[in-house]
Design brief:
Elements: E1 8-9, E2 13-16, H1 21-24, H2 34-40, H3 49-52, H4 67-82, E3 86-88, E4 94-101, E5 104-114, H5 115-119, E6 123-124, H6 131-144, E7 146-147, E8 151-155, H7 159-168, E9 175-178, E10 184-190, H8 193-204, E11 209-213, H9 215-228, E12 239-246, E13 252-253, E14 255-259, H10 267-274, E15 278-283, E16 294-299, E17 302-308, H11 323-333, E18 347-351, H12 356-364, E19 370-373, H13 379-387, E20 398-399, E21 409-411
Length: about 425
């Protein structure tokens, strides 16, 4: 599909000098608590956490959303620019970005994506956003006059797009670091005019892109752009910072559930109720589902494999056929009375990066009554939901590895 609406364009990135990159790179702002961030920045004056979580440089009792936090963030950014730790590229560029976690590798493109394409649903969503979280990201962008946390996007299969990005990785990288968590981050500069033109043309010909992570940052960028239109400002606010990976390279982990009680049922009564919708089989080992339609249940120190009755899965509905939806509908809601996953305090969510031992720990400690392990939501299912203009249940996907903050930022000037 060819369209006159551009999807992406190059930009003059704000980035650390190669020798400073390891000192600057930081986890995404929403991965660490403020207390964890304070510990992480000890002895690291140039960690990007001083910008993305500036409350760590203010008294602990300061409201994290107070004006002085955003002002401190802007102050810290300017200090790092003045110190020469961060600098702007001389002309608009793209950047190839490779993440390596263990045996998994994914290579994508850092680009400025079109707000107009987002508003037109050509950059597609699959989650609701919360106004308070949007407001926070709007204030951060306005305070910094920059977008510093990239939105994670996926593109449909395109051999040509992957070939062009791979070609850029044959040059010497501008950043090549391994973070504290063992994730390897490598960036290459794409500043050749012909390469930039070819990349732009290939991506603009794609039917759509898909938000994997960063719905609030995308929505905030749209709001900032709308507020600045008609003010004579540069059009850089009409684009937002993204990293775009091939959907087939992206790595989704399971996003598991733990519940605080059994809704007044005894363990035996609960298992009997579950057996009405699933085949229940005790397991001598932890259950990590190998396919859709299978769940693990950890209850009273024992694991069970649950296999959903096939006739209960509405295959024609892109949302209700998801494992996270089937579990919610058939067990969490129908048996345990947990209908609102966003607000009900009886349920919590555990990212697959923590492993099944974390589920056991939460139950064995007495904090939770039961845990459910799930098969990861396939990327194809996420894209089907977005194509249908539908919304996935909360906590449906856990992407790993995480992007690093601070490696490239998008200044709005």
């Amino acid at each position: 599909m060819t369209t006159t609406l551009p999807l992406i364009r190059p930009f003059t990135g704000l980035r650390p000098r190669s020798e400073q990159a390891a000192a600057v790179a930081a986890p995404p702002y929403d991965v660490l608590s403020s207390d964890e961030a304070r510990v992480r920045v000890a002895g690291k004056p140039y960690s990007f956490l001083h910008i993305s979580k500036a409350e760590i440089d203010l008294p602990p009792d300061v409201d994290h959303f107070a004006p002085e936090v955003y002002a401190k963030s802007a102050e810290n950014l300017q200090k790092m620019i003045a110190a020469g730790v961060l600098f702007r590229d001389a002309k608009p560029c793209y950047y190839a970005y490779r993440l390596v976690m263990g045996t998994h590798t994914q290579t994508g493109l850092i680009a400025a994506a079109s707000v107009a394409a987002y508003d037109a649903n050509r950059i597609r969503k699959h989650e609701f956003t919360r106004p308070d979280k949007e407001d926070d990201r709007v204030r951060q962008i306005e305070a910094l006059n920059a977008q510093t946390g990239p939105v994670l996007l996926a593109h449909p299969d395109s051999d040509e797009a992957e070939r062009l990005i791979a070609a850029a990785t044959t040059r010497a990288p501008i950043i090549d670091i391994t973070a504290d968590d063992g994730i390897k981050h490598t960036l290459w500069l794409i500043d050749d005019a012909n390469a930039i033109a070819r990349i732009s043309a290939v991506f603009d010909a794609l039917n759509s892109l898909y938000i994997a992570d960063g719905h609030h940052r995308s929505a905030a960028a749209s709001r900032v752009a709308a507020a600045r239109r008609g003010q004579g400002a540069p059009d850089s606010a009409e684009y937002f910072l993204t990293v775009i990976f091939p959907a087939r390279q992206m790595h989704i982990l399971d996003y598991n559930r733990v519940v605080r009680d059994l809704n007044g049922l005894s363990p035996d009564a609960f298992l009997k109720a579950v057996s009405e919708c699933c085949r229940v089989t005790p397991s001598s080992t932890p259950v990590k589902p190998e396919r859709s339609g299978i769940f693990g249940l950890y209850l009273e120190g024992r694991w069970y494999q649950l296999v959903i009755r096939p006739e209960l899965v509405p295959l024609q509905d892109p949302v209700r056929r998801l494992d996270v939806s089937v579990l919610s509908e058939q067990i969490l809601d129908s048996i345990l009375g947990i209908a609102d996953l966003r607000r009900d305090t009886r349920i919590d969510f555990v990212g697959g990066i923590r492993g099944l031992p974390e589920l056991e720990r939460r139950v064995n400690s007495g904090e939770m009554a039961a845990a459910f392990s799930l098969f990861p939501t396939p990327m194809s299912e996420l894209m089907s939901v977005a194509d249908a203009n539908e919304i996935m249940p909360p906590k449906s996907t856990w992407f790993e590895p995480k992007l690093a903050d601070g490696l490239v930022s998008h200044v709005l000037d």
